[in-house]
Amino acid sequence: MATPASLNPPGHERLTRIEESLTEHPFPPQLVVENTSYCNLRCAHCCHKSLARPQRHMDRALWNRIVEEVGREAPECELWPTFYGEALILGHRGELWERLDYAAQAGCRNLVLNSNGTLLDRWEAYERILDSPLRRFILSLDGLTAPTFEAIRVGATRDHVYACVEELLRRKAQRGQKHPAIVCQFSTMPLNAAEAEAFRAYWHERGADVKVRNLLEWTGTLRAGAGSRNSAFRIACPWGNNTMAIHQNGDVVACAVDYAGGLVVGNVREHSVKELWSALGVRLRRPHREHRWDKLPALCRGCTDWQVVGAELHEAASFSSA
Predict the structure, then answer these.
(1) What rounded mean pLDDT belongs to the chain?
(2) Please, what sign has the CA dihedral across residues 289, 295, 300, 304?
(3) Distance between CA atoms of residues 197 and 98, nearest Å
């Protein structure tokens, strides 16, 4: 069987076009805020299992401060309420939904939540998700068959998670509502590449959008097949250019894959998001766009994740079995 194109990083020509589209933004187009650093899985392709920094929830007051600034400065900023941890852990006692509602009240219009789907059948999560102001809800699944799914999503049971996602889709269809879009995500790697097309068909038939992306190496921490960088070619990192990440303690780090906090430019308890975005511009974005590779932060020098940009999003409405 031929290797799917999505298993390989984009070619030089495509990467060059992506780089040419990069521009300096006055405010981050995408903001990842770690409302919780707890996770209940130990996925094969994620570094969370080796996380050395504390696993905690972000203070509610700090979240409020962040979203109030986003609502004032850039309401359409793509705001992710968590990235490194499992979001639905905060669903206990309704805290997650209160935070999402407050962000919407503050003016944030582009909320995107990701989850591993294991807690969908707890704490009224189905109805809370569908009642929420989320624009998209992304389920990271990464495998179609139980052996593949459970080898990657370590600690989860394929049939349980799939049944939960299907129930969420059923309830959304019953309501006839557009948002949140339900997206089933597939990170392509050698272990699951043969299932990519069947995965896409399976979830399209059930009304979900499907996102297929290349595997991240998490700043070079994992060498699991996302791609091998040719040292003679490199582009400015689109992640670093377009994304800002805030850890649960308020630290602003290099980007969305800086899970360990290898580069900290400041803390949102002491500075505004906009000020720290500007500081990131000096430390990270400018040397990237100017190709001053020797001036990059140490974290960036061995990272290859810049070459796996450009995930494929396939909307269910456009799917055809033909």
Answers:
(1) 89
(2) positive
(3) 37
pTM listed for this prediction: 0.90
Q: 204-235 burial, b for 16+ CB within 10 Å, e for fewer?
A: bebebbbbbbbbbbbbbbbeebbbebeeeebb
CB of 196 closer than 8 Å to CB of 1: no
Query: Residue with structure tokens 């990842």?
Result: 32
H helix runs in the chain, sequence order: 12-20, 60-73, 95-105, 125-131, 146-152, 158-175, 196-204, 238-242, 273-280, 286-289, 298-301
- Residue 281 dihedral angles phi and psi, to the nearest 5°: -60, -40
If we measure between CA atoms, which residue out of 153, 167, 165 comes closest to residue 40? 153
Q: How far is CA 287 from the centre of its chain?
A: 24
For 100-129, what is each residue's pLDDT tens digit? 999 999 999 999 999 999 999 999 999 999
Task: Encode 151-185: b = buried (16+ Cβ within 10 Å), e = exposed.
Answer: ebbeebebeebbebbeebbeebeeeeeeebbbbbb
What is the sign of the dihedral through the CA atoms of 311, 277, 64 and 109?
A: negative
Alpha carbon distance 259, 52 (integer Å): 10
Q: Other CB atoms closer than 10 Å to residue 292's CB: what's the count?
A: 10
